[in-house]
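Q: A reviewer asked whether we had any structural model of the full assembly, not just the individual parts. We don't, so I'm hoping you can provide one. Inputs are below.
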Amino acid sequence: MQQLTVNLDDRSYPIHIGAGLLDQIDLLAPHIAGKQVCIVTDDTVAPLYLERLCQTLAGYSLLPVILPTGEAFKNWSTLQQIFDALLNARHDRRTTLIALGGGVVGDMTGFAAACYQRGVDFIQIPTTLLSQVDSSVGGKTGINHPAGKNMIGAFYQPRAVLIDTDSLKTLPDREVSAGLAEIIKYGLIRDSGFHAWLEEHMPSLRKLDPALITEAIARSCAIKAEVVAADEREGGVRAILNLGHTFGHAIEAHQGYGTWLHGEAVGAGMVMALEMSRELGWLPAEDCRRGIDLIARAGLPTAPPRGMLADDFRQLMAVDKKVLDGQLRLVLLRQLGEAVVTADFEAAVLDGILAGVGQ
Amino acid sequence: MQQLTVNLDDRSYPIHIGAGLLDQIDLLAPHIAGKQVCIVTDDTVAPLYLERLCQTLAGYSLLPVILPTGEAFKNWSTLQQIFDALLNARHDRRTTLIALGGGVVGDMTGFAAACYQRGVDFIQIPTTLLSQVDSSVGGKTGINHPAGKNMIGAFYQPRAVLIDTDSLKTLPDREVSAGLAEIIKYGLIRDSGFHAWLEEHMPSLRKLDPALITEAIARSCAIKAEVVAADEREGGVRAILNLGHTFGHAIEAHQGYGTWLHGEAVGAGMVMALEMSRELGWLPAEDCRRGIDLIARAGLPTAPPRGMLADDFRQLMAVDKKVLDGQLRLVLLRQLGEAVVTADFEAAVLDGILAGVGQ
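A: Here is a predicted structure for the entire assembly that you could use as a starting point for your response.
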């Protein structure tokens, strides 16, 4: 088992990574203040892991809430199911919510915890590779709005994160690739050595080699934890974690949430960001090629969906949360391992990238 | 003009109290970071003050959002109107929300600010006496759930509060009394000298004597600010601000939100808390009489609605946010000016108080 800490003063919390953690009550108990525990999961994960977690938590008063699966349900009416269950069961302020599932379950459970009676404790048990390396670290919670992804939410930190790598055994290959997209991102924005390590081990990582995947998750979480600790509320450097996401969110919104997996959209979005960084003369062509190559080898798309046009991107990117006073900012690369957030680029270069899409 | 500060480290903010503040851009401008301002108000307050505020803020890109009036609309679908307007107008993270109205507008605008793009700035301009002395100080925001009041929300502090006492001139007498309920509360829980001052000036306060009402608001806000600074997230002492509210919330929920004004329900609830404190042998009978007398002289009800039975109270109070691990806690008085939050009372005494209702 590996352990690291996200350092946020009185909101600091541990991340445990390893096999079989779902059975270890000693990792959970210190983070549960009262007797009431509400386990939020979805109808894909519930048949796989809910009973096991309930056995681990047998000493508590348990309330399971099973949501419909998928990004399409990451909205207010699904969130309301959590509130209804908590209120019907009379869960009070000392209750602890546990998110058991992927990023959608984590984001909604975290936001429910942030809002229920103005804030209760929660614990993340992410079961997908993507949520293990991304949404479970950093406290971003929320739901989608028809006009944009994650537009309604809160910064709200969990008390602890448990990453049981055994849960990856049931994950479809497509979702493994989606998780690798975010892992690749950490190398690109912050750690060229990690990028080289990923180039070396990509085939084994796709096969979920236990030691290698644990290492990849731990290094990803460590990079994210470091960035989040430096800038919890995304006033500055934290925005680099969004490499490929402005393009990617536009792809997800255009296709309808859930059609493309988040990681797939980020994969194609990172390719666009890499190419734009190259066209601006910032990123050497060889680095750009290496980045795109690794994304392809992870089994990810390297171009946006056919039929999505430049104007679709422009319209959907205009509501991005990184837009400030009307100006679009993008995360771009100076070199492998170094990202910047900037509005200081020639519009013509973005136009050129967008002119190439849809074909 | 009086000014005081709510001390909450990097979330500290000023409260300005006086006549004609709505026209003073120099009190607002320092707290607006960007160019976009969204003024949220309701269809009662909009015809009275919206245009004036828009004139004051003429230099900004303004987005007015006019909600239906009343506690009955303090729900998700009304909140959604704010999000829809912000997204349609492409307001970004640097937008500032301004709440222009009573407690419902303030609670919903604050919660919208807490959640929009995971948190944007907001300013409170409370226009009712109740919101001026209560909800505009302390950062409690939220909406109601059919199963309980303010069950969904956040602790989220405004950047500034502007209390323009001129706005009280258009307030119905019934709402003046409702505001006085919370003012009386501050004396009861924390300041017997203030209680005596209120006894002396109650007739003039009901007539909104400018100097006296400014003084009453300032003293109320100062007491609340002091309690909130000591316990922002209501881990302990802050709960004393809920004197009469556990009973009061049950009354509101039973009657349907908006039938009784919040301050009226709190008035009747404080009478129940005073009587219970006397029955427990904690509060001298003379102090209890003085408290009830002042509540009556403020024009407030001193008994719950006819037809509301003991079991109605029991059921509705069981979901109170002060319930911890299934145990009901109440705010009670040791003497005039000293409140305690406790679960340590004989159940029979509560039963006795409840046995007296509904007649």
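A: Points you may want to mention in the reply: The interface with chain B takes residues 34-36, 76, 80, 83-84, 87-88, 90, 92-94, 114-119, 140-142, 145, 147-148, 150-155, 233-234, 318-319, 321, 323-326 of chain A (CB under 8 Å). The radius of gyration of chain A is 20 Å.
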